Amino acid sequence: MSQAVSPEMRLLILGGIPIAQIAKRLGVTGREVSEARRLMGMDPMRQHTTGTMEDAYWARTRPAEGGHLLWIGPRNESGCPILPYRRGRYSALRVAFRVHYGREPSGVVRAACDVPKCVAGRCLDDAAARRRTREQLAAVLGMDHSRKVCPEGHLYAETAVYRTNGQRECRVCCAQRAAAAKAVAA
């Protein structure tokens, strides 16, 4: 191995990727990865993370066509991308959102594109962005979403669900209607 550590290997090492995975991904031996760690002033065998959380995020992504970024790191039991960093596990979607927008997301972060495994910041929406989109759709379609409560008095801010056609409904009232219909059918 040459005395220089490739930028890709450096990023993977700083991202906390295990030696065996780095070796497999780059087509080198584990010994070469350990040597690179030694050249970087790190323990050749110890698996500790010295980079930032952002470095760890970038090390677990790969660019894809159309500006998308695919997650190649681990996922939790539900299939959501998880970023192991130091001694914790973090939502890769929340980290990607923070990296891209420079702020903490509000609520759940979801991919707004239809590319599987995409974690590109520009493809992610938080609750605030989805609310703005729904409000814009309602305005374009001429729907009045100015009411703050449903006819039964439930706050839309806490109970609103939106249909694909832009209609807003109260989740509590929908559940009550469904339960009543089920009781009648039984």
Structure described in brief:
The protein is an alpha+beta fold. It has helices at residues 7-14, 19-26, 30-39, 53-59, 92-101, 127-140, 156-159, 171-185, and strands at 61-63, 69-71, 82-85, 88-91, 110-111, 124-125, 160-162, 168-170. The chain starts with 6 loop residues before the first helix and ends with a helix.
What does this structure look like?
Helix 1 (7-14) packs across helix 4 and helix 2 (19-26) packs across helix 3 (30-39). The N and C termini lie far apart (74 Å). Helix content is 41%, strand content 13%. The longest helix has 15 residues, at 171-185. It folds into three domains: 1-51; 53-125, no CATH class; 127-185, no CATH class. The chain contains eight helices and eight strands. It is an alpha+beta fold and 186 residues long. The protein has a two-stranded antiparallel sheet. It has a two-stranded antiparallel sheet with strand order 3-4. It has helices at 7-14, 19-26, 30-39, 53-59, 92-101, 127-140, 156-159, 171-185; strands spanning 61-63, 69-71, 82-85, 88-91, 110-111, 124-125, 160-162, 168-170.
Largest sheet: 2 strands, antiparallel
Structural classification: alpha+beta
Q: What general outline do the C-alpha atoms trace? A: elongated
Low-confidence stretches: none
Q: Calculate the mean pLDDT score and round it.
A: 85
Radius of gyration: 23 Å
Q: Give the ordered list of helices and strands.
A: HHHHEEEEHEEHHEEH
C-alpha termini separation: 74 Å
Could you say how many structural domains there are in total? 3
Instruction: Please give the number of β-strands.
Output: 8
Task: Work out the strand percent.
Answer: 5-15%
What's the arrangement of strands in the largest beta sheet?
1-2
Helix content: 40-55%
What is the count of helical runs?
A: 8
